[in-house]
Amino acid sequence: MTHEKLFTLKNRREVKVIFGATYLPTTQKLKTDYEILIREPGEKSFRAPIGISHPKYWKLQTVTKEQGRELILLYSGISRKQVQLAENEFNQLMLIPA
To answer: Distance between terminal CA atoms of the chain?
Structure first.
């Protein structure tokens, strides 16, 4: 199951947070994960905040997954609080206690 939440920032940039869940049969639990995509005003489709032409792209390739998430969050323009809001909505849809 997936859930998408769209945020529009003051500079008219749109940020889409996509939450998804996969069932792990070995532990019998759901694993949630999210992806952040952005769309600048005038662009037609969403893209990753840090692409191959971004100055921090190579740094993103060398850091841990958690550090990479922090970098993506920083360059997307949304806060952790907004991601938490989207996650809470997703958990309510999945009926997972927060």
So the answer is: 17
SS3 category, 49: coil
Within 8 A by CB and 6+ apart from 66, the residues are none
Rounded Cα gap, residues 19 and 17, in angstroms: 7
pTM assigned to the model = 0.83
Q: What is the pLDDT of residues 29-71, one digit of tens each?
A: 888 889 999 999 999 999 999 888 888 888 888 889 889 888 8
Phi then psi for residue 92, to 5 deg, are: -65, -35
CA-based max dimension of the chain = 45
Burial group, residue 24, by CB count within 10 angstroms (0-12, 13-18, 19+) = exposed
29 backbone dihedrals φ, ψ, rounded to 5°: -135, 165
Cα(28)–Cα(31) distance, integer angstroms: 10
**Can you tell me which residue has the tokens 């809470």?**
88
